[in-house]
């Protein structure tokens, strides 16, 4: 399969057009040497895909190709660009195709100065192109004008989009028409030669003299309310020693609502109701709804064991206290079965406390079944209230 002309355009073009472009390249070099270079004066090259909308007299369809450009900045507003291109179009009336390749020299003008982000520009130039077609092929000169934009990606790379209108001196295509008008659009990347441009080095101003601090406590004399603080002292923002910390708040170690300094019965078991002196009230029962069991069994859940551990901790703090443990159920199921289940659950709570080191003599377990509800068994919430374990103090 033969390689299309527009893919080997650049090799052929350098051989065909170098001699013809020497005057234009000389003009570019002269213009560059007379300009004052900006901070970023690095030459650059570009690789672009090209689209051509040809003159109707050519009798060809739109085409595609490629463009290589080499640029040399001349200050912040100008750049000279040499571009080499190759394009291919298809004949409308046959399966033949035509190729264009050539080179041009453009002057790029940046009306708003080249910036570090987005830079529009204008293009004005001329050059030569070779029209390779079935008949009347040959070299033709052209003038072009257009514009484009640069979008900076980083210090070396920019995205480039430009469009140009070409006036080609070709009187061999249409009788009586000495010129052809083509439109081209190019898009690609533009990359600067060399490394990144280093940022300008700005000398830092000398630091201001520190304010006077006679006692060396870190607070300037102008706002030091306690001058002559001893060296090494801890001071606040005003240069004064901080006030002494407040005494610690009294604790309530057994969390019975009575502070430790006035608690006559420290270590009250978890959940016990106490009087003003912190001692358990014998006539009051402690109802623990968080002592739950696995469904239809007397096996304690993990949460129930946590609650019973708190009760055991309190009993260890009051070694003379004795408790009655009562198990209750809701009304779901037979009375006899619920009575048996409540006894098993009360004994399970007692056994757990014994396992925590509490003497069996201090614990009595009793199952009452569904005999003493504290809420209606007709609702789900009421039945949950009735499934409970109660603790009563039998001896203080």
TrEMBL record:
GO terms for molecular function: calcium ion binding; porin activity. Residues 280-396 form the OmpA-like domain. It is a multi-pass membrane protein. CDD domains: OmpA_C-like. GO terms for cellular component: cell outer membrane; pore complex. SUPFAM superfamilies: OmpA-like (SSF103088), OMPA-like (SSF56925), TSP type-3 repeat (SSF103647). It is found in: Cell outer membrane. GO terms for biological process: cell adhesion; monoatomic ion transport. Residues 1-38 form the signal peptide. Residues 196-264, 365-396 are annotated as: Disordered. Residues 197-211, 240-250 have a biased composition (Pro residues). PANTHER family: LIPOPROTEIN YIAD-RELATED, STATOR ELEMENT OF FLAGELLAR MOTOR COMPLEX. This is OmpA family protein. The lineage of its organism: Bacteria, Pseudomonadati, Pseudomonadota, Gammaproteobacteria, Nevskiales.
